Amino acid sequence: MDSLLHLPVFCCKAVPLPHWVPDSQLQQCSSCGDAFNPFVRRHHCRCCGSIFCDACSSGRVVLPGFGYLSSVRVCDDCRQFELGQLPLLLAGDVWTKVGEPQQRYLRLSPDQSLLVWTPWRLEEGPLRYSTEDSADVARLTCVSEAPEQRELILWIDSERLTFVADDPKQVHLWAAALSRLLAIIRQRHSYEQLFGGIAAGAESPRTLAVRLPLMDQLLEQRANALMDSKQRALIAQEMQKRQGTNTALGNTNSARHSEQLSS
Ligand SMILES: [Zn+2]
Ligand SMILES: [Zn+2]
User: Fold this and answer.
1) Which part of the chain is the FYVE-type domain (predicted)?
2) Ligand 1 centroid to 206 CA: how many Å?
3) Which ligand has its closest atom nearest to the C-alpha of 34?
4) What single-letter DSSP state applies at residue 153?
5) Confidence of residue 10 (pLDDT cuts 50, 70, 90)
């Protein structure tokens, strides 16, 4: 079992903390299935709360969303999520929402509690954090992809939302990232139900705490930095495309013009 030295000093209200699986519940590593014994010790992942062997939880990351401001142990899946998939979701991307003429900027809120899709406006200042069109991530029930049609399909309760991207790779990356987010959320909720949350989960070292303003600032800053750089890149791309079109038109016009002159 891990030492209790790396406990968070506070936690997020919006994101339920993983309740540590009690040591007695698992006799083998959740990932590779190796049986635990005095030589293969149990280690808890700070992100999902499950138990792993040392080899399957060798990554260390900072988890500001959970109040861990220095690196803590995470399992391989959670490491991949925190370092690759979460930044993708926080930075957001432009999608076409099926049935709507206007493009949408789809992203995860900084505290990971909301999925937000606001109208995408080119050439405007930084995208304002707005919850105009959003859903609680806990209401997300299913994520699927239709790569040939470049569609990302989200079920929020029983409502189906479909977003289309130009790039099938984008659809695939998002579907994988959202599926992982969904799996982590389910894992956290199922532990809460299984062990009755804080009161009955005597083996969980977590305690409820208030969310500090510093925490919100940190999360907001990280998400905004990711979003700003993504948006700047998209605007530059779009402007380049437009300039390209203009130049092509200009060339055609001047070609026509010279034809007229020579005839
Ligand atoms: Zn393992
Ligand atoms: Zn994990």
Assistant:
1) 23-78
2) 24
3) 1
4) E
5) very low
Cα distance between residue 186 and residue 126, in whole Å: 33
Q: Is the pLDDT of residue 41 over 90?
A: yes
Q: Which ligand is nearest to the CA of 76?
A: 2
Q: How far is the CA of 24 from the centre of ligand 2 (A)?
A: 18
**Cα distance between the two ends of the chain:** 88
Q: What is the CA radius of gyration of the chain?
A: 23
Name residues with Cβ closer than 5 Å to ligand 1, which is an ion. 29, 31-32, 53, 56
| Residues 171 and 151: beta-carbon distance below 8 Å | yes
Structure tokens that stand for 252 in this block: 């055609």
Query: Which residue blocks in 33-167 are alpha helix, DSSP H?
Result: 76-80, 86-91
**Ligand nearest 73 Cα, by number?**
2
Least confident piece of the model among 131-135, 142-146, 190-194: 190-194
Cα-to-centroid distance, 58 and ligand 1 (Å): 10
Average pLDDT along the chain: 78
CA-closest candidate to residue 19, choices 42, 48, 43: 48
pLDDT band at residue 6 under the 50/70/90 scheme: very low
8 Å CB contact between 195 and 123: no
Closest CA to 61 of 74, 52, 49, 51: 74
Cα of 123 to ligand 1 centre, how many Å?
49
Q: Which two tokens stand for residue 193?
A: 């139900």
Average pLDDT over residues 203-208: 38
Among the bound ligands, the one closest to the CA of 72: 2
Percent of the chain with pLDDT over 90: 34
